[in-house]
């Protein structure tokens, strides 16, 4: 399972302040100092799933107030309501809900945190993960797959890299480090698209 996500930032202290102010995810997210070369789209997005549109607006507003840049303003879609922001460290965050109506006062509660990785081949990467003990929760052919990480703190989904960049509102081009590490309670490994998993500290 995924115990937490670690983001690499040139200024880890500033990134920690940002994430505490913007999202307040606690142990699900960590930041560490790093200068790994990276340019353009880093091949992943992180999604916060919330209960209603007012919660989306609250999180987007908090993120912008803390220093994020809006990539896609919050708006209705055929899937619900959501918006996309880019944190000062460069990570891209989507805040979304499947609901199109508000039913309560807005809160900062997050239902799920989802890591979406942009892959060269959803089918090939899906096979790799099933061989490493993951089960497929939902799959839409060669386009998208959700994997069940055994009740982890963060959910995992696979999306074609080009489609994920389009969903985030950024150009698909990018190279260098993902500047992301996935922590697990199992042995570490590196997947076919270069995403690194490491054993969580005891």
Quick recap of the structure?
With 202 residues, the chain is of the alpha/beta class. Helix content is 21%, strand content 41%.
Word description of this protein:
This protein has helices spanning 12-22, 53-66, 122-131, 161-168; strands spanning 2-9, 29-33, 38-40, 44-49, 69-77, 80-86, 92-97, 112-119, 135-140, 144-148, 155-160, 174-176, 180-184, 189-190, 196-199. It is an alpha/beta fold and 202 residues long. The chain has a single domain, classed as 2,3-Dihydroxybiphenyl 1,2-Dioxygenase, domain 1 (Roll). The strands form 3 sheets. An 8-stranded mixed β-sheet has the order 5-6-7-4-8-11-10-9. It has a 5-stranded mixed β-sheet with strand order 2-1-13-15-14. Helix 1 (12-22) links the parallel strand 1 and strand 2 (29-33). The mean pLDDT is 94. This is Glyoxalase.
Question: Top keywords for this entry?
Answer:
202 residues, alpha/beta, 2,3-Dihydroxybiphenyl 1,2-Dioxygenase, domain 1, eight-stranded mixed beta sheet, five-stranded mixed beta sheet, 15 strands, globular, Glyoxalase, Glyas_Bleomycin-R_OHBP_Dase
Uncertain regions spanning at least 5 consecutive residues? none
For the record, the CATH class is Alpha Beta
The shape is globular
Q: Between the first and last Cα atoms, what is the distance in angstroms? A: 15 Å
Number of DSSP helical runs:
4
- The tally of domains stands at 1
Count of extended strands: 15
Biggest pleated sheet: 8 strands, mixed
Could you state the order of secondary-structure elements as H and E?
A: EHEEEHEEEEHEEEHEEEE
InterPro entries: Glyas_Bleomycin-R_OHBP_Dase (IPR029068)
Protein name: Glyoxalase
């Amino acid at each position: 399972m995924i115990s937490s996500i670690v983001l690499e930032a040139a200024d880890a202290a500033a990134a920690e302040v940002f994430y505490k102010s913007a999202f307040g995810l606690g142990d699900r997210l960590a930041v560490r100092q790093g200068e790994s070369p990276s340019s353009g789209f880093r091949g992943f997005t992180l999604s916060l799933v919330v209960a209603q549109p007012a919660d989306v607006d609250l999180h987007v507003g908090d993120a912008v107030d803390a220093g994020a840049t809006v990539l896609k303003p919050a708006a209705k879609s055929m899937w619900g309501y959501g918006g996309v922001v880019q944190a000062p460290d460069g990570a891209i965050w989507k805040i979304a809900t499947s609901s199109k109506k508000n039913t309560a006062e807005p809160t900062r509660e997050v239902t799920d945190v989802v890591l979406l990785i942009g892959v060269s081949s959803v089918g090939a990467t899906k096979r790799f993960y099933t061989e490493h003990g993951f089960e497929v929760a939902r799959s839409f052919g060669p386009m998208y797959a959700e994997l069940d990480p055994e009740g982890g703190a963060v959910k995992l989904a696979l999306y074609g890299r080009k489609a994920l960049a389009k969903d985030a509102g950024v150009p698909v081009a990018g190279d260098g480090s993902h500047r992301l590490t996935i922590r697990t309670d199992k042995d570490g490994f590196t997947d076919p698209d270069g995403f690194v998993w490491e054993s969580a500290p005891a």
